[in-house]
Design goal:
disordered N terminus, nine-stranded mixed β-sheet, 19 strands, Alpha-Beta Plaits, alpha+beta, Aminopeptidase
Length: 419
């Protein structure tokens, strides 16, 4: 059974601070950081940072390609149990959950990090140490977030710190690539439906705070034809030619710098051999914007390029067999934004300053998109340290003063688990 410290005189100030999270959040968080029991917890987070880094390396070396997060999830389940969380479980889509119960069920804070990486099966995920630098695919995004998540649970239980509300820790699936936030959708639409008041995802490195969430729409576009021999059937329109025309037109799309809106052809494929007319060609395309209307406008331009490319290929080879085209939405993330003055954002700023960091704002596309779209106060924070080359095989993480990220996440967790 999970032990809880009996409320002592030193804890009464913590409970007394359980007032509404308001515009006074910075002042309240500063006061919270000065409480003896909270100071002890923050000191423990720093002391345990070497263990947090070891967890980070071990987790990073467990492959977790999109839709294949189970092995890493099993390790997180073990670590949650080891850290002393209650009701540790795996939901129907593979999210791993554990609870730290406070004096009351509300407010209910969910703090999360995602299990999956962008790297496919077969990627070398071994981690190399070079002094303070760790190098390995996925070492920062999001093995760092997972390790900090475990560290928070470990510190809270080791110090037996009592909080007024409740905290659910979640290692979630489906954040990267075509995962389409399936972990978050299951969490908020089913597993924890209607019970969450605040949400924080620890994703990536540094001490940035994201409260503007970039919406995205992802397509798999396929052109199809009859195929054939490259010599005897020459003169027919081909899917790869049509695809090439579409890619060229997409590259020439014009987007305004504000609100920031982007497009990317991320993957292409098709054909069976160099001397065969391809029967099929496909591409995966990512459209993004911080503004829903701008995203819809870009989407309309994009769809026109697909039809125009098909028409141009038919015009080049008149009288021959026709091609077909399909465009399937394979992922969609809602855009969202909270004001810099929102209490949850101000609390994150204050927690950053309290551990000696300089708070900076960032735009992001992450697990926080979905709860934000539901009106739930949500932010994304970095896990500390410094990293770079995310989503590449040369990704690295600098452990110098990485404990500040762990401390910041801990102080913010304690602050948000208050009335």
């Amino acid at each position: 059974m999970l032990r809880r410290r009996v409320v002592s005189a030193s804890l009464f100030p913590l409970l007394a601070l359980s007032v509404a999270l308001s515009a006074q959040a910075p002042t309240e968080v500063s006061k919270l950081a000065d409480l003896p029991d909270v100071k002890s917890a923050l000191a423990a987070a720093r002391t345990l940072e070497s263990q947090t880094i070891e967890d980070q390396i071990r987790l990073s070396e467990i492959p977790a390609p999109p839709f294949k997060e189970r092995a890493r999830g099993e390790e997180m389940r073990r670590l949650f149990l080891q850290a002393g969380l209650q009701n540790v479980r795996v939901d129907k889509v593979g999210n791993v959950l554990g609870e730290y119960r406070g004096a009351a069920p509300r407010p209910h804070l969910v703090i999360a990090a995602h299990l999956d990486s962008v790297f496919p099966d077969g990627t070398n995920v071994s981690v190399r140490r070079e002094g303070a630098i760790l190098r390995g695919a996925g070492i920062g995004d999001d093995s760092r977030g997972l390790a900090v998540l475990v560290a928070l649970a470990r510190v809270l239980n080791q110090t037996h710190l009592q909080v007024p509300g409740s905290i659910t820790f979640v290692a979630d699936v489906g954040e990267e690539g075509l995962g389409n936030l399936r972990g978050m959708k299951a969490l908020f639409d089913d597993t924890l439906k209607g019970s969450v008041d605040r949400f924080v995802t620890i994703d990536g490195t540094g001490l940035s705070i994201a409260h503007t969430f970039v919406g995205s729409r992802r397509y798999r576009v396929t052109y199809r034809g009859g195929g054939g021999h490259s010599f005897t059937d020459f003169g027919a329109p081909t899917p790869i030619n049509a695809l090439g025309r579409a890619v060229a037109q997409i590259a020439d799309l014009k987007v305004a710098p504000d609100p920031r809106t982007t497009f990317n052809v991320g993957r292409i494929g098709g054909g069976i051999s160099v001397n065969s007319l391809p029967a099929e060609a496909w591409m995966e395309v990512d459209l993004r914007s911080v503004d829903r209307k701008a995203l819809d406008a870009l989407d309309a331009q994009f769809r026109k390029t697909l039809d125009a490319a098909l028409a141009a290929e038919h015009a080049r080879w008149p009288g021959a067999a026709r091609l077909s085209m399909s465009a399937e939405v394979v992922g969609e993330r809602p855009a969202g934004q909270f004001s810099e003055n929102a209490p949850i954002v101000q609390a994150a700023y204050a927690a950053t300053r309290a551990v000696g960091g300089l708070p900076t704002s960032a735009m992001s596309s992450s697990d926080a998109n979905y709860p934000a779209s539901l009106g739930i106060a949500a932010i994304q924070i970095g896990g500390g340290g410094q990293g770079g080359d995310a989503h590449t095989s040369t990704e690295y993480f600098d452990t110098t003063d990485s404990w500040r990220g762990t401390q910041r996440a801990l102080l913010l967790t304690i602050a948000l688990a208050r009335h």
